[in-house]
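Researcher: Here's a chain I'd like modeled. Treat it as a single chain, no partners, no ligands.
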Amino acid sequence: MINISVSCDPKFQSPNEFIVNKTTIHVMESNKIESGEISLIFGSDELLSYLKKEYFHKDQWTDVIAFRLNDYVEKVVEGEIYISLPRAEENSKSFGEPFEKEITRLIIHGCLHLLGFDDESKKEKLEMTQMEDDFLSQINWQKIFES
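Model: Modeled as a single isolated chain. Structure tokens:
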């Protein structure tokens, strides 16, 4: 069983937990993950900027950060995914995409990082973007902010 916990900075509208859970579990199960504990934290630019500086030694804004908390054991994932809601909103405007779709893309992106995928090179970024697009076509992201 994959257990998902969702928390959101009270300054922001919290995404629909059912859609967040369904998205996360879909990505994990599609990659043969059978159990785990995954926390999704929706927060501010300041939170993610702090994490980026503290753990990656980069002083810059970012939209998503993922921390794998267990060793790469087959079929088990424990981790945390942090998503900046203001960055997601900015991204959605610059990409001309709905905010809900961008949030869902960031959830998928964070899950892929927990699974060991990287986006350091152009080739890796392209591969991750393709996987994100594939998952987005399978998920009802339009309802992520409905209660």
